[in-house]
Each structure stands twice: as C-alpha cells, then as structure tokens.
Amino acid sequence: MEEHPLVGAWRKQSAEACDEAYPADLRFDANGHYRGQPVPPREYTCWDVGTWADDGAGTVRLSTANDRVAAYRWRLDGDRLSFEDETGCRFAYRRALTS
C-alpha cells in the first residue's frame, strides 16, 4: 500500500494575517493522527493534536484544538502543500527534511 502524500513533516511557508492560528511545524502520521507545533512554543494553534482523514477529492478533515472537525481543501505541488480553510484563508507548508 502506498503512503499518503500528506504523511510526513511540514514547515509553514506563508505568513498571512489569516493563518496565524495554524502551526509553524506540522506532522501527519500514517495512522491518521497529526501534531502541530506553534512557534514560539505555548502559543495557540488550532491544529494542535488530533486526527485527519482525506476524502480522496482534495479535502482533508482535521479535528481541531476545540474538538471540532473542520474541512480544508488541500493541494500538493512537489514539496509544497497548500491549504484553504472554510473562510477562504490560504496558507502553505514545505516538506521538512527529517533525520
């Protein structure tokens, strides 16, 4: 079975006012869990820890910090992962190298 393209570590590349609540570092695990880390630590992030599921049609559903499950459009271009939230905010991550 091929690994899902979202699986792995990501570092935020965008810096828009609307994306401040999203984590600076993000990791999607193959088991359907994710973890987000804000910078600096202890800042709020709406994606802290939770579950994720891809619908196969360009939308991923994530459980957020307030336990709400929200839908995000996503697109992967090479090592650049972009999201669009329900308000139209667009933000992007780049695949992080892990050792």
Topology overview:
Layout (H helix, E strand, L loop, with lengths): L7 E5 L12 E4 L4 E5 L11 E6 L4 E5 L5 E9 L2 E5 L5 E6 L4
Antiparallel strand pairs: 1-2, 1-8, 2-3, 3-4, 4-5, 5-6, 6-7, 7-8
Question: What distinguishing features does this structure have?
Answer:
mainly beta; Lipocalin; globular
Describe the fold and architecture.
The protein is mostly beta strands and 99 residues long. It has a single domain, classed as Uncharacterised protein PF14869 family, DUF4488 (Lipocalin, Beta Barrel). It is built from no helices and eight strands. The chain has strands spanning 8-12, 25-28, 33-37, 49-54, 59-63, 69-77, 80-84, 90-95.
Summarize it.
This protein is mainly beta.
